[in-house]
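Dear support,

I submitted the protein below through the web form. The confirmation email said the job was done, but the results page showed an empty box. After a refresh the structure appeared. I'm attaching both so you can tell me whether what I see now is the final result or a partial one.
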Amino acid sequence: MSKKSAIVTGGNSGLGFATAKKLCDNGITTYIIGRSKEKTEEACREIGENAVPVIFDLNDLAGIPAMIENIAKNSPIDILVNNAGINLKKEFLDVTDEDFLSIIHTNLLSVFAVSKAVVKNMKENGAGSIVNISSMASQYGIPKVIAYSASKGAIESMTRAMAVELAPFGIRVNCVAPGFIKTKMSAKALDSDPERKNKVLGRTPMGFLGEPSDIADAVYYFALSESKYTTGTILPVDGGNSIGF
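What the results page shows now:
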């Protein structure tokens, strides 16, 4: 079997880094897209020889097709992980139109644009796996993250629509919905809000936060042939948080 190649957006930190490392450790050439040159190159050095840095700001929607085309020149794209995203914690009435649009632009429009460009390559090859990353914020209402919640809910709807439309071309599309995972972003949010942290742990049946590797393992399952008859699914990886009482 020829060596597979993958793209992981936002793969220079957090869940994206763990996912990129999982893919690379299993012999998959992985293109890590990040806007910070220093951070992305350092992540690739840490991960090892299968990691390839791609310095690009996904807010540049018009430049995405050419960026993806340059990657595809090196090898067919077998796997796409749409991980890049930003959050905004603000009271509903304090969120401006510009705030809302900024989150939608990064978390949703860029996913559409990257997927569209990658699907053109996958369609030529007659196969491919796309894994989108959503959030518990799409599973139930969480206060102070209205824009983020809207973007992740849209990601899950888009996952199902893409899965149905792309299945005839051998392209599978699935989604991983992380619960509360120990990352710098979540630590900053929860450690500064003890009441929120206690509430999170109190409704998580397993009683602890997940690890980035838990998300990476789920993405890896969707990426390869072990899930060859699975498409259009949303998998919560959350210690039971989404069903907790």
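Response: this is the final, complete result; the empty box was a page-load delay. The mean pLDDT is 95.
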